[in-house]
Design goal:
This protein has about 475 residues and is mostly helical. It folds into two domains: about 20-210, MFS general substrate transporter like domains (Growth Hormone, Chain: A); about 275-480, Growth Hormone, Chain: A, CATH 1.20.1250.20. Helices cover about 70% and strands about 0% of the residues. The chain has helices at about 25-45, 50-55, 65-75, 80-90, 90-110, 115-140, 150-155, 155-175, 180-185, 185-200, 215-235, 240-265, 280-285, 290-310, 315-330, 330-340, 345-360, 370-395, 405-440, 445-465, 475-480. α1 (about 25-45) packs parallel to α7 (about 150-155), α15 packs across α18 (about 370-395) and α19 (about 405-440) runs antiparallel to α20. The longest helix has about 35 residues, at about 405-440. The chain starts with about 25 loop residues before the first helix and ends with a helix.
Length: about 475
């Protein structure tokens, strides 16, 4: 029988079965604001690096320590996020994480030396690693499966809009009021997010957590930090590359030991049980991780293509990138209807081919290409990316039970972070190898053409994996009738 329509409020309460009565767009919006603050911080910092280096009286490359510190802190704390939420309650943990991120942003802006800045970035990394999975868990707790597409239409916009706003806003603030305001911008957003979380999110008792699995936590933390740190540095040369490979080997071995421990421990720090659910497995492992890796490399690869390949200035390249990222957002009003019409399996499979096809023009574009053709190529690639990413994110929890949501969100967050790092690392490594093979001093259009071709082939490999998906997977969410 259809449910009796009810007024949507922020105080939706779980039913005895674990599902909620109705969807609260306000809760999804609050979580999206917190996520936007985190994503904007990552997108805005790159434009400030030269000014920050002058302020700290160091080389611009030395500021990579701040990026690395954020990444490693985030990787180290990620495995414990679900345990913290169950031990102390999702609302409390989310509040503290947003507050820590906001305070760390303030310290970043106040820093006058590189060591202080790095310490503040560690605080941001610790908080950011908790905000993403716990925020997703809160949304899942207060959203019926039939309304997950509505929630995703709200929560996915930070990942799509931050790359548009970040570089432009960062450059403007750096030139007008100084680089410190790039971090102080988080203060009103963070304070607003904390106050609204306290006001709107219903208070519920903690689920209760088992004794902390210290061995599992240590193995996961060491494995992730070594693996991601090595991947981040793999494009370096000489001794740096040897160090990167060594870190990757240590990380891989430790990760294997961690997986064995998690599979045998009665109460592991990070449960792998949610990966038994097909929806989460398809979305986070194969083929989902391939697409997350490809999409995460786009903000790195496209500026290189426009500046080093086509010879655009940074300002002109940033303007052209608006076509790509605005198309990401522009398709959003229709994504739910498209998924409802085609179903997850069909959309992910056929749009996967469109993603690959949308990359092929970038294997031929040159400085002589018509501006109209370049704009169309960027826009079509952005539309295909947005539809695929939204479909993956929405489908991930289609058959994950209510009791597994925290563990599933933690697993998805870790694997998503790994996929993103892998995507950028492999792209940078491929460009470095091709540049050496061609004997070029710096990256040229030839290397970029080949990398786009390799990326398209990789997408095709990932796309083939979606054909094995059950046709009815996620039907409860998409509303697609068989």
């Amino acid at each position: 029988m259809p449910e009796t329509p009810q007024k949507t409020t922020a105080s939706s309460q779980p039913l005895s079965s674990g599902e909620v009565q109705h969807y609260s767009p306000l809760i999804a919006l609050i979580m999206a604001i917190a996520t936007f603050m985190q994503n904007l911080d990552g997108a805005i910092i790159n434009t400030s690096l030269p000014a920050m280096a002058r302020s700290f009286r160091v080389k611009t490359l030395d500021l990579s320590a701040g990026v690395t510190a954020y990444l490693l802190a985030s990787a180290a704390i990620s495995p414990i996020s679900a345990w913290l939420a169950m031990k102390y309650g999702e609302k409390r943990v989310m509040c503290l994480a947003v507050a820590l991120f906001t305070l760390s942003s303030f310290v970043c802006g106040m820093a006058h030396t590189l060591p202080i800045f790095v310490c503040a970035r560690i605080g941001q990394g610790l908080a950011g690693a908790v905000m993403m999975p716990v925020g997703m868990s809160i949304i899942l707790r207060h959203t019926p499966k039939g309304d997950l597409m509505k929630a995703q239409s709200v929560t996915v916009w930070p990942a799509l809009s931050a790359p548009i706003i970040g570089p432009v806003l960062g450059g403007y603030l750096t030139q007008t009021v100084g680089w410190r305001w790039n971090f102080w911008l988080n203060l009103p957003i963070g304070i607003f997010a904390v106050l609204t979380i306290l006001r709107v999110i219903p208070s519920e008792p903690p689920e209760g957590a088992s004794k902390l699995d210290l061995k599992g936590f240590a193995l996961c933390a060491v494995g992730l930090t070594c693996l991601l740190s090595g991947l981040q540095r793999i494009s370096e040369t000489g001794m740096e590359q040897i160090i990167a490979l060594s870190l990757m080997v240590v990380g891989a071995i430790t990760s294997v030991l961690a997986i064995r421990h998690l599979q045998t421990h009665p109460t592991p720090i990070l449960s792998l049980e949610p990966l038994r659910r097909p929806s989460l497995r398809y979305a986070s492992l194969y083929p989902g991780m391939i697409f997350r890796a490809v999409f995460s490399s786009a903000p790195f690869l496209l500026p290189l293509f426009l500046q080093l390949g086509l010879g655009f200035s940074p300002v002109r390249a940033g303007t052209w990138l608006l076509a790509y990222f605005c198309a990401n957002l522009g398709i959003k009003p229709w994504t739910s209807a498209i998924i409802r019409w085609g179903g997850f399996r069909n959309i992910l499979f056929f749009n996967g081919f469109l993603v690959a096809l949308s990359l092929l023009p970038f294997t031929l574009l040159s400085a002589r290409t018509s501006p109209v053709l370049l704009a169309l190529s960027l826009a079509i690639a952005g539309i295909c990316r947005s539809l695929q990413l939204t479909s993956l994110s929405t489908m991930a929890f289609a058959d994950v039970s209510h009791s597994e949501r925290s563990r599933g969100a933690a697993v998805l967050s870790i694997l998503g972070q790994t996929g993103s790092t892998v995507g950028v690392a492999i792209t940078a490594f491929a460009l470095a190898v091709l540049t050496n093979l061609y004997g070029h001093v710096s990256i040229s259009l030839s290397e970029l053409h080949i990398v786009f071709l390799l990326t398209a082939i990789t997408v095709l490999i990932g796309t083939s994996g979606f054909w094995a998906m059950p046709r009815t997977l996620g039907a409860e969410i998409s509303g697609k009738a068989d």
